[in-house]
Amino acid sequence: MRFLSSLSAVILLLSACLAWQAESNTLDAKPQNALTMNLLINQKSFPVILADNPTARAFAESTPLTVTMNDLNNNEKYHYLSRPLPAQPKTAGHIKAGDLMLFGNDCLVLFYKDFPSSYRYTRIGTVQNPQQWVQMLGNNTVTVTFSR
């Protein structure tokens, strides 16, 4: 009886580990049919993987879009859009450099530093290889072009 209990516990633990590993791999991998776009800063282009949600699709439909983004808190750039986008905000918990989010329903936010946050955002996408473009953002305003 004790052997069966131990065996059940081991099987349960292994299945939990495998499920966690599968979920982790899914989060890191680019989905096969993911929507993508480009972010252009200072004539350098960076790929953006878009989230699979109505906000990201609506944002993609509004491109090409060139905006001047202002700095806030030395960790993000923001721009108020001329039209609202559909929003389903969730508490961020932790922001990562490269996160492209919507604050409220009309404020586009591009984060260039990692930090904890209790604010609510709707995810639009993630800029790939943020370490390459963070230095280009600086603390000033920056002109950014989004295109598909």
From TrEMBL:
Pfam families, per the entry: Cyclophil_like2 (PF18050)
Signal peptide feature range: 1-22
Domain Cyclophilin-like: 41-147
UniProt key word Signal: yes
SUPFAM superfamilies: Cyclophilin-like (SSF50891)
Keywords assigned by UniProt, alphabetized: Signal
PROSITE patterns in the cross-refs: PROKAR_LIPOPROTEIN (PS51257)
Gene3D superfamilies with a match to the protein in the record: 2.40.100.20
Entry protein name: Cyclophilin-like domain-containing protein
Organism lineage string: Bacteria, Pseudomonadati, Elusimicrobiota, Elusimicrobia, Elusimicrobiales
